[in-house]
Amino acid sequence: MAVEFHAPSPLVPNRECYLARYSRCLSNNVWGVVDVSLESLFPNPLIRYQRRPSGCLIEQFQSRLCKVIWVEHSEVDNSSVPEVCQHFVTSGHAYGAKQWLSTLVRQHERLTYIMVRNDRRPQQLVPTGEENLLTLADRMMRSFWRNLSASRKNQWMTVPLSGAENIEAIIRFVKDKEGRRPGPALVMATTIRIPASSRRIFDFLQDENSRNKWDILTHGHIVQQTRSISNGCVPGNRVSVLEVKSAEDPDRTIKTLLQESFTTSDSSYVTFTPVEASSFSMTLNGGDPDNVPVMPSGFSISPDGPTGDEGSLVTIVFQILDGTASPMHFPSHSVGTMYKLITETAKSITAGTVDPDNMGR
After folding, report:
1. Of 314, 274, 308, nearest to 294 (Cα)?
2. Where are the alpha helices (DSSP H) in 59-169?
3. What tens digit of pLDDT does each residue of 166-210 get?
């Protein structure tokens, strides 16, 4: 198969290779899945990554638990990785075995919480509002990850502004399951280093009470959480509905946001999308959530050190609709607006999470 491995930052090049995957039951309750690159059979001078024998051993116990051993072994040229992401990549945080395991644990945890919730209620012909919200949040996250990756389908371009050397931009077309296109969207992203722990940054970003401190678009307004669905055992792993209300008229809702936040031992995400009131009402009342357009923005948070206490890498991703945009044309007014939004947000997150004694680090 031909594969691409992506890190949670458009500044980090993806890893491409041709590989063979071999899966086998080795003995009772023990399975193995192993990959190896095939560049020796299909040489490609553009490929700068080779996957040496890598994979996992899975052993099932009678207690319905599994022990998983993961091994990552690769040969790669990291010379094109920018300085801000060098340690993140070379330390193994971006593509290492721990990343695979934390992703596996997170997905299992998410599915387990959904199954437990379904077991606690009688079967219904119409999906509940909670089920639809989880489905919509899942599609939002998948769209966010697609936007975030640096792949052949995502040809990021450096923003043509002074001081924006590490800010990338791309045009995506926002559409729903039926193929309707609300329009082209300008997506911009950057990765910065903040001398604060990943957990502290995650808590700051996912808490609706501190949103006014970093979200420029909610300044002067009231942010309230009106619904929350836990989908993990770690506090903060949840899908939330946030309402932004006018400070002068608290009964008036300015906009509604769907947000998912989760953290693992190796990475954290806070992702959100605006949802129209009519679409949100339809979703809660059993309508098809796949017909609701999503435009996710948000953050990826990764430790930049052995424990993550030394500092973190935060990738900031925002997008806005712009009918005049095209893959070869980034409207200057939208670029300027997004550049200001990203840079001001980066400053606000740093100011809200870093102790004054660590500002110079």
Report:
1. 274
2. 83-90, 97-119, 129-148
3. 899 988 887 655 556 668 889 999 999 999 999 999 999 999 999
